[in-house]
Design brief:
Blueprint (H helix, E strand, L loop, with lengths): L1 E7 L3 H12 L4 E5 L7 H4 L3 E2 L13 H8 L6 E3 L4 H14 L2 H16 L1 H12 L5 E2 L3 E5 L2 H12 L8 E5 H7 L9 E5 L3 E3 L2 H14 L3 E4 L6 E3 L2 E6 L2 E10 L5 H5 L9 E12 L8 E4 L4 E6 L2 E5 L2 E3 L9 H13 L3 E4 L5 E7 L6 E4 L6 E5 L5 H17 L17
Parallel strand pairs: 1-2, 1-13, 2-10, 4-18, 6-15, 13-22
Antiparallel strand pairs: 3-9, 5-9, 6-8, 7-8, 11-12, 12-13, 14-17, 14-19, 14-20, 15-16, 16-17, 21-22
Helix pairs in contact: 1-9, 1-12, 6-9, 6-12
The protein binds flavin-adenine dinucleotide (FAD).
Length: about 425
């Protein structure tokens, strides 16, 4: 079987990339070892995060480092066994999080973040998925007066980004989200983002649009990728598939592909969990709520209220555990006392694919003609999938890119 372009990986990044290549006339086959949207794109918090204009950085203050060092925080935990292996990556991430470098990363990411909602909107409309997307923004809530005061001051520093938000004092917040607990003292309602009540369903809906428009989805193993007579070839359930070019969008599994080809990208994994809950007395959570101190999000989802945790540093393939989820769940029951029983047998475990300089890798491989990368979208892959799919497709087809792709170049790690 032959096609012009193989896209490897049918997460939100791969599916969006396939759609954008297809829209530019490429004959595309999308390949995944599983069904579309079953990786990290299945279980995230569902925020299309237009307001996240500053990348998620490594904490720099001594107080924060000491606090995290004790390994008892709900938002970040680490496996002691994994720490020596993760240390070089963490050091690199820490260096890149220095104020001037973080400002540069924010400037580089802005063109992508600015377009994230409109790029999703076009696909949501075309795929008939408006029912799974809400335009109510999300609310960041506070329990500590000092932290709330600091957040209000910091928000003013974002004025030049033109973000829409409302600062909610306790009564205003209680009026907007009526079932919150009494220790919540206020919040910031970010109005630009959209939220998705079934992120895996959204990804599958985009994949269905790709197929409806004439694309093919076939199950296969990206690890079989090889070059044969000047073409790229991958084994699939329908036999070998050959193509002129291949775009690798394998998210947290990207290393499985690029390492055998001789690329050494510093891809780090930040693990995170989710669990669904029933609610008591038919209580409804109206908005997605982020408890900044706890580092978790409570989101109204198709299956119930989904709690997604912050970061766990542990080996990517180490078994999951309930330590972080339990810590967050205790806080969540105070934040939203109507949180009922658990609905899943075990917590879902996801892996955020992260580069230490907080920019994804989007562009051509430096040593293999016809090989392209689109991975490393970290905390915001759901947000950035469609806009990064556009950029990659523009580069592959030689169209003028909507933004300078240099900050995302794979060659920066050569
Ligand atoms: C707890 C949590 C909460 C999050 N919340 C948000 C949020 O609110 N908003 C947001 O924007 N982002 C969020 N994220 C991040 C976001 O989910 C990821 O950045 C995004 O899903 C990455 O998408 P992807 O397509 O690169 O990877 P994936 O979705 O993991 O897709 C990679 C695909 O590659 C396939 N694959 C892997 N190996 C092979 C192989 N050998 N052969 C064939 N196929 C293979 C996998 O099956 C998978 O389908 C969150 C992440 C976590 C963990």
């Amino acid at each position: 079987m032959y096609c012009q372009t193989i896209v490897l990986g049918a997460g939100i990044v791969g599916v969006s990339t396939a759609l954008h290549l297809q829209a530019r006339g490429r004959q595309v086959i999308l390949i995944d070892r599983d069904t579309p949207g079953s990786g990290t794109s299945h279980g995230n918090a569902g925020l299309i995060e237009r307001s996240s204009v500053i990348p998620y950085a490594f904490p720099r203050s001594v107080g924060a480092l000491l606090r995290y060092g004790l390994n008892r925080q709900p938002d970040v935990r680490y496996s002691l066994l994994h720490l020596p292996k993760a240390a070089p990556w963490l050091l690199r991430y820490w260096r890149q999080s220095a104020p001037s470098r973080l400002a540069a990363a924010a400037a580089d990411m802005l063109p992508l973040v600015q377009r994230c909602v409109e790029e999703h909107d076009a696909l949501i409309e075309a795929a008939g998925l408006t029912a799974v997307v809400q335009a109510k923004g999300w609310i960041e809530v506070y329990r500590d007066p000092a932290l709330f005061a600091q957040a209000k001051a910091e928000v003013k520093g974002l004025a030049r980004y033109g973000l829409r938000y409302e600062i909610l004092e306790r009564e205003q917040l209680q009026a907007r989200e009526q079932r919150l607990g009494n220790d919540v003292i206020g919040g910031i309602h970010w109005l630009d983002p959209k939220t998705v009540s079934n992120p895996g369903g959204l990804t599958r809906g985009y994949a269905a649009l790709f197929v409806k428009r004439g694309g093919q989805f076939i199950q296969g193993d990206a690890r079989s990728l090889r070059q044969v007579d000047g073409h790229w070839q991958v084994d699939s359930q329908r036999g070998p598939i050959s193509a002129d070019e291949v775009v690798a969008c394998l998210g947290p599994q990207s290393a499985e592909l690029y390492a055998p080809l001789g690329y050494r990208f510093p891809l780090g994994i930040k693990r995170g969990y989710h669990m669904h809950y029933a609610t008591l007395d038919d209580a409804q959570l109206q908005h997605s709520i982020c408890d900044t101190q706890g580092g978790y999000v409570l989101a109204p989802m198709a299956r119930g209220v989904r709690l997604t945790t912050g970061i766990e540093f542990a080996a990517s393939d180490a078994p999951g555990n309930e330590i972080q989820l339990n810590r967050c769940e205790t806080l969540a029951r105070q934040l939203f006392p109507a949180l009922g029983e658990r609905l899943d047998d075990t917590p879902w475990l996801g892996r955020r694919p992260c580069m230490p300089d907080m920019r994804p890798v989007i562009g051509p491989a430096s040593r293999h003609k016809g090989l392209w990368f689109n991975f490393g979208h970290a905390h915001h892959g759901l947000t950035l999938g469609p806009v990064c799919g556009r950029l990659l497709a523009e580069l592959v087809t030689g169209e003028a890119p909507f933004t300078d792709p240099a900050p995302y170049s794979a060659a920066r790690f050569d």
